[in-house]
């Protein structure tokens, strides 16, 4: 048995054990976070997977998983363990970050967020904790993803992909069990996760990642087509409109950008487009659409207007109805505070913020805010100059991802498009942890020319 096989088998045993703990009882569910934290101390790939499991455990369907009383404390414990793991290995230091422009840019952005929080935020402790949390998680991920060798990186990629595919496969049987699969609102499918607006974007990221890899192959495997089509179907069933658009546009836009930035032809970037199997899939889809007739048209209409719950006449109208009030309030705040912003991670109506605090230390462990449209939210919270700094950081990340390939840039663009509907980019405590893991994976990938 080689080292890779031994590590994979040992990891699967650990995964099964901690998953059983998370699903068992409240006591074992709490202990599962400590087990993941201990796992994070073992190495770089272990720290990555510990953060992936932290996202998964915090996102499980409450109808199927045991309740945990730790809340955000368990998540912070794992994040701290992952950061300590990188510190012990010398991966988080000025010497280690030297020469890594994207990691240095991340550190500078984090310092800016903390300083901005001290000067502007009406709830300084809330903003500082959110800024520190995002900075620590992101720097830890850069240290972990950026410090692994090719074999370790490939192993971590397979495990991450395996977790997302497992979420999809274990969710499929719940299509026949609406009391579990549609527990939140009886219409949007949530699978084994806690909300349709978590499950839909999760499937969109999986579909975009796998879809870009699929079209990057000259002869894509049949199973990959099935996986991508399943992801798209589940996104539609979740009623996550932004997720469906982000998945499709993420692949298309990234392909054109990679071809343009690297001076290549589109078919060179995505040879799978010209595959006979791709043509066959398109023909089958068209035939199915014709046979479905009005049923397909009605289903698509219901998807974009959320099952007729939103009285709209089109996609833009539906978007305006679901996000218009939030946008108006953010625009008002921008007009009132164009340069300084209202504070990092602060709700548009700050007086109505509900802050959960740790009963022992009184630290803010949760302050959920509902915002859509990431660009507007950034300007509202950080002001115009702060938004420019964030855009500069994003440009560095996107440029690095574009050099690595279509799949990497697709993940970044899909994440940004998802944030046009629900602003989670700076929220590693919730769904935002998963896309952040994928974005750093993309930004740390080796350029295509340097791969052997």
Per DSSP, the total helix count is 19
Helical percentage:
55-70%
| Succession of helices and strands | HHHHHHHHHHHHHHHHEEHHH
Strand order, largest beta sheet: 1-2
Taking the alpha carbons of the first and last residues, their distance comes to 25 Å
| DSSP strand tally | 2
What does it look like?
- There is one protein chain.
- The protein is mainly alpha-helical and 452 residues long.
- The chain has 19 helices and two strands.
- The protein has helices spanning 3-24, 26-40, 44-59, 72-88, 94-97, 101-120, 124-147, 150-171, 178-181, 196-215, 222-238, 241-261, 266-269, 276-292, 294-304, 315-336, 374-404, 406-418, 433-443; strands at residues 356-357, 364-366.
- The protein has a two-stranded antiparallel ribbon with strand order 1-2.
- The longest helix is centred in the last third of the chain and has 31 residues, at 374-404.
Give the gist of this structure.
The protein is an all-alpha fold and 452 residues long.
Topology:
Elements lengths: L2 H22 L1 H15 L3 H16 L12 H17 L5 H4 L3 H20 L3 H24 L2 H22 L6 H4 L14 H20 L6 H17 L2 H21 L4 H4 L6 H17 L1 H11 L10 H22 L19 E2 L6 E3 L7 H31 L1 H13 L14 H11 L9
Antiparallel strand pairs: 1-2
């Amino acid at each position: 048995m080689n080292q890779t096989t031994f590590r994979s088998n040992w990891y699967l045993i650990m995964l099964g054990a901690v998953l059983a703990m998370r699903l068992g009882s409240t006591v074992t569910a709490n202990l599962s976070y400590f087990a993941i934290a201990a796992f994070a101390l073992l190495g770089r790939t272990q720290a990555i997977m510990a953060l992936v499991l932290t996202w998964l455990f915090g996102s499980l369907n409450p109808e199927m998983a045991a309740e945990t009383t730790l809340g955000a404390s368990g998540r912070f414990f794992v994040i701290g363990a992952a950061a300590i793991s990188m510190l012990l290995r010398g991966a988080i230091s000025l010497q280690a970050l030297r020469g890594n422009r994207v990691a240095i840019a991340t550190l500078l952005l984090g310092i800016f967020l903390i300083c901005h929080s001290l000067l502007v935020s009406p709830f300084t402790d809330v903003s500082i904790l959110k800024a520190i949390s995002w900075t620590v998680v992101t720097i830890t991920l850069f240290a972990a993803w950026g410090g692994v060798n090719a074999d370790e990186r490939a192993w971590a990629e397979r495990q991450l992909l395996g977790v997302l595919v497992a979420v999809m496969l274990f969710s499929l049987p719940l299509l026949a069990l609406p009391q579990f699969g549609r527990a939140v609102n009886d219409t949007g499918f949530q699978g084994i996760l806690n909300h349709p607006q978590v499950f839909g974007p999760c499937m969109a990221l999986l579909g975009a990642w796998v879809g870009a890899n699929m079209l990057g192959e000259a002869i894509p495997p049949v199973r990959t087509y099935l996986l991508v089509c399943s992801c798209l179907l589940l996104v539609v069933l979740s009623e996550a409109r932004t997720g469906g658009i982000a998945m499709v546009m993420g692949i298309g836009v990234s392909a054109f950008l990679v071809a343009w930035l690297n001076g290549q032809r589109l078919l060179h970037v995505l040879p799978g487009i010209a595959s006979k199997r791709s043509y066959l899939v398109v023909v089958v889809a068209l035939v199915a659409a014709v046979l479905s007739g009005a049923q397909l048209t009605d289903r698509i209409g219901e998807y974009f207007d959320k099952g007729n719950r939103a009285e709209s006449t089109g996609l833009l109208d539906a978007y305006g109805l679901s996000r218009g009030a939030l946008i108006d309030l953010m625009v008002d705040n921008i007009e009132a505070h164009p340069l300084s912003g209202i504070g990092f991670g602060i709700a548009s109506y700050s007086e109505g913020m509900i802050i959960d605090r740790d009963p022992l230390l009184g630290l803010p462990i949760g302050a959920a805010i509902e915002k859509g449209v990431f660009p507007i939210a950034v300007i509202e919270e950080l002001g115009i100059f702060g938004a420019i700094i964030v855009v500069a950081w994003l440009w560095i990340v996107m440029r690095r991802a574009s050099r690595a390939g279509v799949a990497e840039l697709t993940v970044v663009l899909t994440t940004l498009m998802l944030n046009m509907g629900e602003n989670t980019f700076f929220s590693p405590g919730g769904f935002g942890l998963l896309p952040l893991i994928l974005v750093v994976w993309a930004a740390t990938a080796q350029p295509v020319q340097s791969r052997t």
